[in-house]
Amino acid sequence: MPSVLITGATSGFGKAAAQRFAKAGWSLILTGRREERLKALESELSQHVPVLTLTLDVRDSEAVSKALGELPEQFLPLTCLINNAGLALAPEPSQQVDLKDWHTMIDTNITGLVNVTHAALPLLLAQGEGASILNLGSVAGQWPYPGGHVYGASKAFVQQFGYNLRCDLLGTGVRVTDLAPGMAETEFTLVRTKGNQEASDALYRGTTPLQAEDIAEQLYYLATLPAHININRLEIMPVRQAWSAFAVDRDAQ
Ligand SMILES: NC(=O)C1=CN([C@@H]2O[C@H](COP(=O)(O)OP(=O)(O)OC[C@H]3O[C@@H](n4cnc5c(N)ncnc54)[C@H](OP(=O)(O)O)[C@@H]3O)[C@@H](O)[C@H]2O)C=CC1
Ligand SMILES: O=CCS(=O)(=O)O
Fold it and tell me: Which domain of life is it from (predicted)?
């Protein structure tokens, strides 16, 4: 039975991915900080597949390496790692941002992802051919926009780290993909605005954003491609989202 480790399974893409992989009979290792949510998901999905929940913060490298170093045999070797835990904060311009918010994004989206990847690599190498690392990047890692600052830069790191990993993993059979979604309706904007439900609702109102299940379907597709195929980067937007023109600063007329 193949196994998948999903970080940030308590909400959004991670939770939908857990449900999608469970439907296909995969064993699940689910992580996040909110234990009650992990336990609720475990009781839902363990009726169908083996589920192991690990309550941890990806920023804590010791906790991550201890937990992944002690995985029960039943979940090994690891077939797929989904590096999904992450967040954006501070939608305001750089010159107004609280430095702590930049640090939190760097610590979570970069250091956390690196912590988990480092601990999981031996487990994926034990699988070799057909194993996958699926990293949640973002359109923000490729395309700049106002208020994107460190969030976009952290996702650019995710993309380049994945490409570089591919170089090192050549010959091992382990694949690496940067899955880069655009606007998707999850708790992402609620977190970004520090709990402003009205701002979150307003962002998604009157349009058709991606849903968590759309991304879960892509994750499952990537994880189950024939073993000789590696999709390096997969960028996905809703049809009702596109790029904007360059901004220009003009003198008052
Ligand atoms: N929604 C969108 O528009 C897009 C999102 N993304 C990326 O997709 C990923 C998932 O986002 P999405 O599902 O939308 O957002 P959600 O806020 O719905 O989910 C984020 C998940 O990350 C977990 N998480 C956050 N910080 C930590 C931490 N320090 N340690 C462990 N887990 C953590 C949360 O769990 P908990 O709080 O329980 O720890 C939660 O399960 C993120 O990396 C995001 O940047 C990319 C492109 C578009
Ligand atoms: O990564 C999330 C999508 S966006 O807010 O940067 O467009």
Answer: Bacteria
* Token pair recorded at residue 242: 């596109």
Q: How far is CA 59 from CA 87, 109, 114, 154, in A?
A: 12, 9, 9, 14
CA distance 2 to 21: 10
Per-residue confidence (pLDDT) for residue 173, from 0 to 100: 98
**Active-site residue 204, yes or no?**
no
* CB burial string 36-53: b at 16+ within 10 A, e below: ebbeebbeebeeebbbbb
Angstrom distance (rounded) from CA 45 to CA 39: 10
Task: Give the ipTM of the model, two decimals please.
Answer: 0.99
Q: How far is the CA of 139 from the centre of ligand 2 (A)?
A: 6
Q: Which ligand is nearest to the CA of 241?
A: 2
Distance CA 1, CA 224 (A): 13
Q: Which two tokens stand for residue 221?
A: 């597709």
Distances (CA, A) of 139 to 21, 131, 175, 204: 24, 25, 21, 17
| Dihedral-angle region of residue 164 (phi above 0 means left; psi in -120 to 50 means alpha; beta otherwise) | alpha
Condensed to tens digits (0 to 9), the pLDDT of residues 11-58 reads: 999 999 999 999 999 999 999 999 999 999 999 999 999 999 999 999
Question: What is this structure's pTM?
Answer: 0.99
Q: What is the C-alpha R_g of the chain?
A: 18
Report whether 43 contacts 61 (CB < 8 A): no
Token look-up 């989202």 returns: 241
Q: How much distance in Å is there from the Cα of 111 to the middle of ligand 2? A: 19
Residue nearest to atom 2 of ligand 1 (CA): 184
Cα(32)–Cα(52) distance, rounded to whole angstroms?
12
pLDDT over 90 at 90, yes or no = yes
